[in-house]
Structure formats: structure tokens, C-alpha cells
Specification:
Length: 394
């Protein structure tokens, strides 16, 4: 006997990244050496001192019981200390922090926490596809904010109608941006807060790549801008900063009413994270940060090697200022998907087609800098051998 799925599940979008994995696995199964630049899964191990903290805490019988529903106070205090140290932002650990099972969980939950069916969300286009999952579950209306190269991949609020802005209850932003790798300035965040206050819109800033900025520029936290906590929250994850993707640790910070709503829904879904993971997470936030500096330097070295290599074959694009992605235009005559498929079949290089991130992603592909420089250079050489670009004259 088969039982039908609920309407909520039937509204869920197709999992974009699962489709990419299937394509890669098929070509690998045919015996080819595939350089996978299509995913955003950190390739380095979690730093040793964090792993050791987990090992040392796992034997503590106190952590074998249910954790406090909303997390241990020591982790929330560590989060507060981390934000003060890194961004000079004051956070009340008890009322302005929600511990998340990875930031993706919070990003999916928040639409269900704050909106009723039929209400309106502002979604960046292109944008992280999993924002749509929470919107589908909440059965809300979506209005897209185009991220255009001419606007440095920032939304232009002046191009959104008064009708859309007046209906909107929630806005998603993400800088450094996935997939475009763009970064945001204080001036842009000031403008965002002004719009959000005037229209009573809650802002959710996805700060997953907050640690990864290049050329000596540290990415800016939304909460650093005056008035940010009045209008929204920021979501941070340990996945990228400390290579802890599989640990599933994130947190939301900011507006007390939003934090209260997130904590409430999680009280009904979970009983917080395993205590030893919380202890190790506190060690990550409070312990030595050399590992973060070394990681960012590694990504910058990879970025430089890859950008030099693609310029050598005639593929022109601006070097990313943050994240571990490169957003690249496709050659004339291709769609983002047909170009990505060609690279996989002929060069055995996987990239993510921009259309998977939204309508405005058409004409681009996303490359992840999650291989060492020699493999990134090799990928560029394989692509160059297809003679799709006009090589620069020396």
C-alpha cells in the first residue's frame, strides 16, 4: 500500500545539488577522472584542537543526557564572545541567540515561524536554492529580487514596486554571496535597514561565508550596521569557518522576537545538539583562530591560481572578493546548463549551472574552489582544450 505525500511535501522544489551529484557519479562510473567544481562541500578536515575537544567531551556523562532544549549557556556565551571579538557586536546570549542544527535548518524554519500561507517573501535571484524549501513548506508567495552584475550583484530596492515592498514580510540576503561571490558594504546594509523599517520587513542575512574574504578585506556582518537588530537576524554556521560541515552547528543572532520564534519551533522539533558537540563548538569559537587565517589564505591561493589559469585560456571574469566560489559567464551560444553538461562530458570538469540558482543565474556557471591549485589549473587547461574562448594576445 502506498500512501500519498502531503501537499507541503509536494510543493518542495527538486533538490538541485542532488541532480549534480548524480551526473558526476555517472561519468565517474564510466571510468573518467572528474574534477568536481560544482559543489560547496569544504574539502579540508576540522582542525585538530576542535576534534580533540569533542573526544575529550564525549565521555562526560552529563552530555549523555538530553541537552537543554535551547542549548547550553556556555555555547551561547561563546557565540556572544565570538561576535564581540570578530565584529564588535554586542549580543545577549540568552535572548538574542538561537542554536541551530546547521544554519540551513534555521533558513528553512524561519519562513514557517514568521509567515502565514499566502504572505510574501523577498528572495534573491540568483540565490541559495534551499531558501525555497522553507517557503514551499510555509506555502507563501515569492517575489524575486534580481542580482545583476551592473549592480555588483546587490538588489536594487528602487526597482521593486511599492506594491511588492508593502506586501513583503520577510527578506533573504546572503553576503558574501552564494553563488555570485559578491560582498556587501555598510552603505548597502544601511539602505536595507531603511527599507525594512519603513515597510516592516524582517531581514534574514545568511552569513555562511562570513569568515572568507580576500585581499585583506574582512566580510561585513549585517549586525555591525546600526539598527540591524531592530529589523532582523543573521545566521552563521561553523561549516565553512572551521570545516565543520558534517557537525551541523549553526546559530541565529539578533532580533529578540525572531530568536524567540526560532527557539519555539525548535523546542517542538528537537532537544538541541549533543552536548559534546556544543563543547567542541565553543572551543572552535573561543580557541586559537590561526586555522581560520590559514584556511582563508588557502582559498585565496586557490582563487589566484584558478583566475590566472582561466585568463590564460581567454575566460574573462572578475576575481571573487569573498566566499569560495567563482561566478563565471558562459560562452556565446550556450545556456548555463548546456555549457555545464559539455564541460562534464568533454572535459570531465563539473561546474554548477547558474539556472539552478534562479532565472537570473542563466548565462553563468558557479565554480567551487574546493580543490588544490594543481587540480584547479588542470580543470582550466581541460576547458581550454575545448577552444571555446579566444585566447589573449601576448
Amino acid at each position: 500500500m502506498d500512501f500519498p505525500q502531503s501537499d507541503a511535501l509536494n510543493r518542495l522544489p527538486k533538490q538541485f545539488f542532488a541532480g549534480l551529484v548524480q551526473k558526476v557519479n555517472r561519468v565517474i562510473a564510466e571510468g573518467h577522472d572528474v574534477i568536481n567544481l560544482g559543489q560547496g562541500n569544504p574539502d579540508q578536515p576540522t582542525p585538530d584542537h576542535i576534534v580533540e575537544a569533542l573526544k575529550g567531551s564525549a565521555g562526560n556523562p552529563e552530555y549523555h543526557k538530553y541537552s537543554p532544549f535551547q542549548g547550553f549557556s556556555f555555547l551561547k556565551q561563546a557565540i556572544s564572545t565570538f561576535y564581540k571579538r570578530e565584529y564588535d557586536v554586542d549580543i545577549d546570549p540568552e535572548s538574542e541567540v538561537a542554536i541551530l542544527f546547521g544554519s540551513k535548518t534555521g533558513l528553512v524554519e524561519i519562513t514557517q515561524c514568521l509567515l502565514n500561507p499566502g504572505e510574501t517573501v523577498l528572495m534573491p535571484d540568483p540565490g541559495y536554492p534551499d531558501y525555497l524549501s522553507g517557503m514551499a513548506m510555509a506555502n507563501v508567495n515569492i517575489e524575486f529580487m534580481p542580482l545583476l552584475e551592473k549592480n555588483a550583484f546587490l538588489p536594487d530596492y528602487g526597482q521593486l514596486s511599492d506594491d511588492i515592498l508593502n506586501k513583503a514580510k520577510l527578506m533573504f540576503l546572503n553576503y558574501p554571496n552564494n553563488p555570485t561571490s559578491a560582498t556587501a558594504s555598510n552603505e548597502f546594509f544601511e539602505q536595507t535597514i531603511e527599507v525594512a523599517k519603513a515597510r516592516k520587513i524582517c531581514v534574514v542575512h545568511d552569513f555562511a561565508y562570513g569568515a572568507i574574504g580576500f585581499d585583506g578585506e574582512k566580510p561585513r556582518s549585517f549586525l555591525q550596521t546600526k539598527g540591524a537588530k531592530e529589523v532582523g537576524v543573521e545566521m552563521y554556521t561553523l561549516s565553512k569557518t572551521y570545516n565543520m560541515a558534517g557537525w551541523r552547528v549553526g546559530f541565529a543572532l539578533g532580533n529578540k522576537s525572531v530568536i524567540k520564534a526560532l527557539n519555539l519551533v525548535q523546542d517542538h522539533y528537537y532537544v538541541s545538539l549533543f552536548g559534546a558537540i556544543q563543547k567542541a563548538s565553543a572551543e572552535a569559537l573561543l580557541g586559537p583562530q590561526d586555522c581560520v587565517d590559514e584556511l582563508v589564505a588557502r582559498y585565496e591561493t586557490r582563487r589566484n591560481a584558478f583566475m590566472d589559469a582561466i585568463h590564460e585560456i581567454g575566460w574573462k571574469a572578475e576575481a571573487p572578493k569573498g566566499s569560495f566560489f567563482v561566478w563565471l559567464p558562459v560562452p556565446e551560444g550556450f545556456t548555463s546548463e548546456s555549457f555545464a553538461d559539455l564541460l562534464l562530458e568533454k572535459a570531465h570538469v563539473m561546474v554548477a549551472p547558474g539556472i539552478g540558482f534562479g532565472k537570473m543565474g542563466e548565462g553563468y556557471v558557479r565554480v567551487g574552489l574546493l580543490n588544490e591549485p594543481d587540480r584547479l589549473v588542470e580543470a582550466a587547461k581541460r576547458i581550454g582544450a575545448l577552444h571555446l574562448f579566444k585566447k589573449p594576445v601576448k
